[in-house]
Amino acid sequence: MALIKSISGIRGTIGGAAGTNLTPQDIVECTAAFGYWLQQQGATPKVVIGRDARISGKMVSQLVSATLNGLGIDVVDLGLSTTPTVEVAVPLLQAGAGIIITASHNPKEWNALKFINKRGEFISKSDGETLLQLIESGAIRYAEVTDLGSYEEQDGWIERHIDLILDMDAVDADLIRKKAFKVVVDPVNSTGAIAIPALLDRLGCETILINGTPDGFFAHNPEPLPKHLEALSEKVKATGADMGISVDPDVDRLALVSNDGSMFGEEYTLVAVADYLLQRNPGNTVSNLSSTRALRDVTERYGGSYFASAVGEVNVVEKMKAKEAVIGGEGNGGVIVPVLHYGRDALAGIALILTHLAKSGKSMTELRATYPDYQMVKDKIQSPEGVDLNSILEKMHEQYREEDCNTIDGLKIDFPDSWVHLRRSNTEPIIRIYAEAPTLERAEALVGQIKTDLLSLLEQ
């Protein structure tokens, strides 16, 4: 059981004791701090909320709404929705902020509050630090009975989000409809089961849905990794589909399966979208330090420059704005298209991938073969309580001082033909270890070597 308070929000397991898990007290405490912080900024006293289909979602949503109302803040509730849909809705509704109730890729026992600003973007690091201080201080004043906030439910925002996607110049809906693609979708029993078929229907695709009941009882581990997508792969092969689509519960990460049932690779979702957009509009790109080198290669192919940011969507967005990137995101299947909004958006990624596929005339397998073939291994170890991870990373840095090292986010070690990145997770009590190399064997060996070194230092 766990409770994690970070600059990006609060996340934890439902039940148990307050202060150590995500209980009603913790939900109210953190929501109140966010609402009070919002008022202190002089922002519009209106917050848009939405949730994925987690079992605890309705309970958490009710607590959030009532707490905001108690502060005198109006609530617009989008109900079952997606993270990018809420992000799009906040500025269009001229709200002061948004709260997305989702624990992203975490299992069903988890839930979380993600805080976004009036632009529909995750709050900044400095704002997050201020919020954490407010949570600890408890210095919050509530509204008088005559000043309580209002509550309103609004439907139709997923459809409006889809409208915005189809209105993008880079999306050729008519061409996609002519191709009549057959697509298998695994939305892991969450709100992707509502949003993705609606999008594909507008694009004239034949949709085959598995794990499509949005009840929060995830049919498998909800993180869209290859080891969790075997059923999707088999369904693609069995039905002769053109592609398979998997998303996480809040629909901001997109993983693809090729027409032969092979994994397109979540790292290559962003690469493929960038390839298509850069053909139309060459420019700069951004991804985080844990993402594939293939994006750099594709960017340079079209004369642009690639830039790396610290891990975390807010860091990617900040770097994208600074470098005026035309496309960016994260190697976990997160695609950020600035002309739409500055947030990871699996629905936008789907529409752009389908356009790319339709225009190229290639199959998914053929398209994947056009990109540099790096192999990545993503691993992790538990982060022991009380351990000074910064000191451990400093020792690792010293051990690999002869290599090209980057310390803006944990420790990334660049070798001539490969790299490894280790950092503390912002969402789980773990140390993530990612490595990429020309072959899977080399990447696995690199992870093994680093884990051995790391565990040795942790045991000292």
TrEMBL record:
Q: Which molecular function terms from Gene Ontology are attached?
A: magnesium ion binding; phosphoglucosamine mutase activity; phosphomannomutase activity
Short name of any one Pfam family annotated for the protein: PGM_PMM_II
Q: Which UniProt keywords apply?
A: Isomerase, Magnesium, Metal-binding, Phosphoprotein
Q: Which GO terms describe its biological process?
A: carbohydrate metabolic process; peptidoglycan biosynthetic process; UDP-N-acetylglucosamine biosynthetic process
Residues of the Alpha-D-phosphohexomutase alpha/beta/alpha domain = 8-137, 170-261, 268-372
Query: Cofactor(s) for this protein?
Result: Mg(2+)
Domain of life, per lineage: Bacteria
PROSITE patterns in the record, alphabetically? PGM_PMM
User: Among the entry's GO cellular component annotations, what is one?
Assistant: cytosol
Q: Where is the Alpha-D-phosphohexomutase C-terminal domain?
A: 395-450
So what family is this one in? Belongs to the phosphohexose mutase family.
**Name of protein:** Phosphoglucosamine mutase
Protein source organism: Flavilitoribacter nigricans (strain ATCC 23147 / DSM 23189 / NBRC 102662 / NCIMB 1420 / SS-2) (Lewinella nigricans)
Gene that this polypeptide is encoded by: glmM
